[in-house]
Amino acid sequence: MEELLIVTTGGTIDKIYFDDKSDYQIGEPQIGRILEELGVAFRYTVIPILRKDSLHITDADRELVRATIAAQPGGHVLVTHGTDTMVETARVLESIPDKTIVLTGALNPARFRGSDAEFNIGCAVGAVQSLPPGVYIAMNGRIWNPERVRKNVSANRFEAC
After folding, report:
1. Which residues are listed for substrate binding in this entry (predicted)?
2. How many CB atoms neighbour CB 107 within 10 A?
């Protein structure tokens, strides 16, 4: 892998909560900070495209993500995305040939102690380096085919469908 392209769209991984209002905002992308703290031994570029909860991502937003990735020269792409509509975005990205694209996110904000963000990012980085071209989802310690996975909202995890 020459350089990893990271595209961020928001989602829980980047959320900042305000206790006094029980409200949240999507903050700065956390993945660059996480990779820097971990001292990774590869080059990466972060392109923040959206700062949205994935429930608010539109078809036009998905097309923007697809077009941005398709226009980049690199063949290895990691996308951080909210978990609720990650599968839908992954399916749109399947039209991009000759790139290994892995989507990941978090069920708890990266700023929270005990968040799954670092673990999911680590799985995604390993996957994007080792899998053949295609689109994958890295969540809950597994690599999923977007055509065969769904988020179980009540159990708050991804599972085969």
Report:
1. 54, 83-84
2. 17
19 belongs to an annotated ligand binding site: no
Residue 84 counted as an annotated binding residue: yes
Q: Which of 12, 80, 85, 100 is catalytic?
A: 12
Q: The pTM is what? A: 0.94
Asked if 89 and 95 touch (Cβ cutoff 8 Å), the reply is no
By C-alpha distance, which of 51, 91, 108, 46 is closest to 72?
Answer: 46
From the options 3.20.20.100, 3.40.50.1170, 3.30.200.20, 1.10.287.130, give the CATH code of 3-160.
Answer: 3.40.50.1170
> Is 54 assigned a ligand-binding role in the annotation?
yes
Q: How are the residues of the chain apportioned to helix, strand and coil, as percentages rounded to the nearest 5?
A: 30, 35, 35
> Residue 45 catalytic?
no
**Average pLDDT per block of 10 residues along the chain, 161 residues long:** 94 81 79 93 96 96 98 97 97 98 95 93 97 98 97 94 93
